[in-house]
Amino acid sequence: MAETQQGDERAVGRVVRRIGAFSKAHGGAEGQVAYLGQRGARIVLVGGDGDWGDVVAPSYEIAEQAVAKAGITVHESFDGEFAGKVRTGPYEWSRMAGIQVGGPRRKD
């Protein structure tokens, strides 16, 4: 049992460091934790500059501990004002358009 607890503490530490690095690079961060099933939990991060990214934690509990230790604001869902903070660029727009019309077009 002690090995599991120590492993969980290390996992929390790794996730906290990744959140901290993102936050430092993007002028702060806010997040939302989503359960992924057996795979763990996804922490979607939105930086103060509008850039976004994510971190996958091995469990929902580890994700919750990590966001608490990282000291970021955590949202219940990814909608409304929080989603409005995301800045999308040409890549995201082309991907979204490609999905709508059957995939990206080749430029031959």
How many H/I helical runs? 4
Percent strand: 15-25%
* Structure summary, number of beta strands: 4
C-alpha geometry: globular
Percent helix range:
40-55%
Rounded Rg: 16 Å
Low-confidence stretches: none
Neighbour order of strands in the largest sheet:
3-2-1-4
Q: Biggest sheet, in brief?
A: 4 strands, mixed
Q: What is the residue-averaged pLDDT?
A: 86
Measured distance between first and last alpha carbons: 59 Å
Order of helices and strands: HEEEHEHH
Structural class: alpha+beta
Description:
This protein has a 4-stranded mixed beta sheet. The protein is of the alpha+beta class and 108 residues long. The chain contains 4 helices and 4 strands; from the N terminus they run αβββαβαα. 47% of the residues lie in helices and 21% in strands. A hairpin with a 4-residue loop joins β2 (41-47) and β3 (52-57). The model has no long low-confidence stretch (mean pLDDT 86).
Q: What's the quick description here?
A:
This protein is of the alpha+beta class and 108 residues long.
Topology:
Blueprint: H1 2-25, E1 29-35, E2 41-47, E3 52-57, H2 60-70, E4 73-75, H3 80-84, H4 90-100
Parallel strand pairs: 1-4
Antiparallel strand pairs: 1-2, 2-3
Helix pairs in contact: 1-2
